[in-house]
Design goal:
The complex is a heterodimer of chains A (296) and B (353).
Chain A (H helix, E strand, L loop, with lengths): L4 H32 L6 H15 L5 H24 L7 H23 L14 E4 L2 E4 H23 L1 H11 L1 H6 L4 H27 L5 H15 L4 H21 L1 H4 L7 H12 L14
Helix pairs in contact in A: 1-5, 1-6, 1-8, 1-9, 1-10, 2-3, 2-4, 2-8, 2-9, 3-8, 5-6, 5-8, 6-8, 9-10, 9-12
Chain B lengths: L12 H4 L6 H21 L2 H27 L7 H19 L3 H20 L8 H20 L1 H4 L6 E3 L3 E3 L2 E3 L2 H24 L1 H11 L1 H6 L4 H28 L1 E3 L5 H14 L4 H23 L7 H22 L3 H15 L5
Antiparallel strand pairs in B: 1-4, 2-3
Helix pairs in contact in B: 2-8, 3-8, 3-9, 3-11, 3-12, 3-13, 4-5, 4-6, 4-11, 5-11, 9-11, 12-13, 13-14, 13-15
The chains are: A mainly alpha (296), B mainly alpha (353).
């Protein structure tokens, strides 16, 4: 087999574009982790929920209006989650909160499928599945659009967290709940805002992945793909989420293409995890994560 | 009135550390065992034994294993189902391809699972909490892929299913539901007794010290690495044996699709709802999760065809998720703690202070 460099380049670029979409999902995790110290396992279910809501709303509303509608739903959901689940769990071990989000994930999956059924739905946002030809390298329009949208959102979020007053308040909350409270930052609204942003990210991820794969149960699994991204980039780092997403996206498509024929395919499903385990052994806090030093 | 603890004066450490400090508890356990051995198999029909009681026993064993790791040693695992899968495949392959007798192959399956579990527990030396959870999640995906793609494991069959041949124990063919029940019961009783003693021992206390405060426990000389790895190994051993039992007695085959990520979460749900750090809780939680779908089915079928079929599965998801959140908020120690509360109330009933 002659080695086709052009093909490898094409796979790498596609992988990088997909990776940017992973980054977007990973960012949903990072934001909540930074602002509340919670690892939100329900992000996948939220993505599914948002995508289903968008599909059903866009059946009788224009795309713009239904986007606004879903956004309202996600903000309301964030408020309810804060009110019902997070508030009673303040000051409990992080592990308890983590398991609560697992419960929330099951709950949302059940609700989403009870309302909208288990049939995959198509989501059409007017992007056709065509490809651009750049000097022999084929790049899908959908991938380009997804990566572009992810890039813009990533930029906005980073700007929001670094430059705005609210964003700084949220970062203060993540540093130290009590200190933030004592300088007058309302903890509850900070958490509600964080979860609302996570809902926004879930909506964006739901649109992007829903148009690619159809809106269905496996969207929740896409969110699990974001976990290796987090391990590689570091849990509490926004640049880490972006770089980690790019690494995971490109490495999994390359592994599938280069190694897949030898071991029987399906490498994509677990190669990011393998990479993550290697990172856990060698560099547990990821590329950009804040290393927590515990002296004994 | 029903529950007496008076006259319970402990004079020695031996009495204080006894497995059942109160005589009534001891008799209670004996009564339950006698019921389990002599009454249940004759009262329960084939359907109950095969599709409810045997899975309940096996899942209790597996939940107990997870409870060692999560409830006692404080290390979260999201890949427990994959360790069950390793045990199931290893024991079935040992039995059917290498002619190893049933009990040694079950033990072998458990040991293989223990080694695999310990390997994925290595990151626990450096990381904890979510990071460790991701490592165990990685175990789930990697093992799933490894088993489903390995020619050697599946023996070339489709869907990586390895069927179990007829089960002989000491030359006795185990094929009726009652015989299967006894096999499961005996193994579960032995392993639970061992587990109960394990958590009372020095090892169990070391685990609990790691759970409660790892830095302090390291200072007083508890080797974190050794005991964390031991927790992973023991917990995976229990999972492996439970997986083997599941394959031999329930599914009649080792099939990777039965050990999905979903099962890992169900096991986690069992110990959250049943009670973390409690042997009794593992049983209560397993009973709850096994009975929940059946209960929902009965409840809804009473209302006739009001609900479409796939709503039931979703209703189960909703109730399952809701209950996890509910128990975490209201009663973090689960049903086992509720049972203790009832006992405390009964102790003084009907004349509370």
């Amino acid at each position: 087999m002659s080695f086709n460099w052009l093909f490898v380049l094409e796979v790498t670029i596609t992988g990088l574009l997909v990776g940017l979409m992973y980054s977007l999902i990973a960012l949903g995790f990072v934001l909540i982790y930074k602002a509340s110290g919670i690892f939100n396992f329900a992000q996948g279910a939220m993505t599914l929920f948002a995508a289903f809501a968008l599909v059903s709303l866009s059946a009788f509303l224009s795309l713009g209006f239904s986007l606004v509608g879903v956004l309202v739903i996600m903000v309301a959901l964030a408020y309810v989650v804060e009110r019902v689940m997070l508030r009673p769990l303040v000051a409990r071990p992080a592990l308890a909160l983590f398991m609560a989000t697992i419960g929330l994930g099951f709950f949302l999956e059940g609700v989403a499928q009870a309302i909208w059924g288990t049939q995959p739905r198509g989501l059409d946002i007017g992007i056709t599945e065509t490809s651009y030809d750049l000097g022999g390298i084929l790049i899908s329009k959908m991938d380009l659009f997804g990566a572009g949208l992810s890039g813009v959102l990533l930029f906005c979020l980073v700007w929001f967290f670094q430059k705005t007053r609210t964003g700084r308040a949220l970062r203060a909350v993540s540093d130290d709940h009590e200190a933030a409270l004592s300088v007058g930052i309302p903890l509850r609204s900070a958490w509600a805002i964080t979860w609302a942003i996570a809902g926004l990210v879930a909506l964006a991820a739901g649109i992007l992945w829903g148009t690619r794969l159809g809106v269905q149960f496996s969207l929740t699994l896409i969110a699990l793909k974001a976990l290796p991204v987090l391990i590689i980039g570091g849990f509490d780092s926004v640049p880490g989420a972006i770089i980690g997403g790019l690494i995971v996206g490109s490495s999994e498509s390359l592994a599938e293409v280069l190694l897949g024929p030898y071991v029987g395919g399906g490498i994509k499903d677990f190669s990011p995890y393998l990479l993550a385990v290697v990172f856990l052994w060698a560099r547990p806090y990821g590329l950009f994560g804040r290393e927590i030093i515990e002296r004994v | 009135m029903f529950y007496r603890e008076c006259g319970n004066y402990k004079a020695t450490y031996r009495e204080d550390m006894a497995i059942f400090p109160i005589p009534l508890d001891k008799w209670g356990i004996f009564v339950i065992l006698i019921l389990a051995f002599l009454v249940v198999p004759f009262l329960a029909g084939h359907y109950w034994l095969i599709s409810i009681i045997i899975p309940f026993l096996i899942f209790s064993l597996s939940a107990l294993g997870l409870n060692f790791l999560t409830g006692y040693a404080g290390q979260l695992s999201l890949g427990h189902a994959s360790f069950m899968a390793v045990g199931a495949y290893a024991s079935v392959i040992l039995y059917s391809r290498y002619g190893v007798p049933f009990l040694p192959s079950l033990l072998g399956g458990g040991l293989v699972a223990a080694v695999v579990g310990a390997i994925f527990g290595i990151p626990s030396l450096k990381v904890k909490g979510f990071y460790l959870a991701v490592s165990t999640l990685a175990a789930q995906f990697i093992i799933h892929w490894g088993i489903s793609h390995s020619r050697w494991v599946s023996g070339g069959s489709v869907y990586s299913t390895v069927n179990t041949p007829d089960l002989y124990i000491f030359g006795w063919l185990v094929d009726t539901s009652m015989e299967k029940y006894y096999v499961a019961l005996v193994i579960v009783v032995i392993m639970v007794l061992f587990g109960k003693n394990l958590v009372r021992s020095q090892i169990g206390r070391a685990w609990m010290s790691i759970r409660d405060m790892d830095v302090a426990s390291e200072i007083i000389g508890v080797s974190q690495f050794r005991y964390k790895l031991l927790a992973f190994a023991v917990s995976s051993f229990y999972a492996g044996v439970a997986g083997g039992l599941l394959a031999f007695l329930y599914y009649m085959a080792a099939n990777i699709e039965e050990f999905h990520l979903h099962l890992s979460f169900r096991l986690l749900g069992m110990i959250i709802i049943g009670g973390m750090g409690s042997v009794l809780g593992s049983f209560l939680g397993a009973a709850f999760i096994v009975l929940l779908p059946i209960f929902i089915n009965r409840l809804v079928s009473g209302w006739g065809a009001l609900f479409p079929v796939d709503l039931l599965a979703n209703l189960e998801l909703i109730i399952f998720g809701g209950l996890i959140i509910f128990f975490l908020i209201i009663e973090p120690l689960g049903l086992a703690r509720l049972w203790l509360t009832v006992k405390d109330k009964l102790r003084l009933w009907p004349f509370p202070y």
